[in-house]
User: What shape does this take?
Amino acid sequence: MTIGTLLRMYLTTSEVFNIWEVLSQIVVGSYFAVAMAKMLDIVKNRNNLAAILQEFERLWPSKVNTVNEKDIVERYMMRNTIWMTRYAYLSISCFLTVNSTPLFIMLIEYLTGGNAKLLLPFSAWFPYDEFNPKIYPFTYIYLFYGSHVGSASSICFDVLFCILLSHLSMHYKLLQEEISASVKNIKTDGSETLEDNMRNEVTLMKCIERHQLLIGIRYKIAYIFTNTIFFNFSCSTFNMCIVGFFFMIQESAGKTKFMIMFATLMSQIFLLCWYGQELLENVRNFPQKKCSQDSNDPFLDFLLIYFSELQLK
Assistant: This one.
């Protein structure tokens, strides 16, 4: 499917130049190229993704100890459910609208007594005449199924990426709460007992271990997704310009399809930026928000320096 759409774009430019066909094929070709890159990226890194999920399972709290931790978990889970569901519904609506519009146009023309010209949801290169009445239904089904696979791949990849970033951000928040609670239990007046020291030491060692695990997960996510996300972001941004241009020049009835396409591309870029920026802020603010207590204890200063240095590695 991807090769066919890209070949169609080349053949369009090599024949009589038509700017509208060229722009349309750029949108279709880049969309399928991104979808294929996402699918290949998931298949290539399936073992690394399984390892990340196992590490998240180790990090997942068996219980929440404070009201703040409970609020953090519930807030992240609720937001993920709402945003990912809406994005999936919008993407499915875009897929159905783009691929069903030719059917409705042909049906309206047929019912109104006009000459119902055969239409396809988008153009691709075929080694045969795709508008042959005997072959046309199979061609349409093939394009519909290929578009379904591309949309499903894009949705699954985007949802997986955003949820991984969200879980990582949530665990940084939970770790922040746990370290803050541990630091508050440290007595700086010399009244702590041996049992208190041992309890605090064990708790802080576990926090350090979790922090190192979070850093490892962060690097794995960056290794898996960075190149594909950059390719996706570049293509989607360029496609938004083309789709927005098509939206402006279309008449009232023809604006619906391009409006949904534009909204889908915009929501995709928004979610990628939102979750990425949230993780970036949590990582940057992590060392400063837990050891900065109202105490001049050298041990607390050591914790601040230690976590800050880990963030830079």
Summary: Residues 240 and 262 are 6 Å apart (CA to CA).
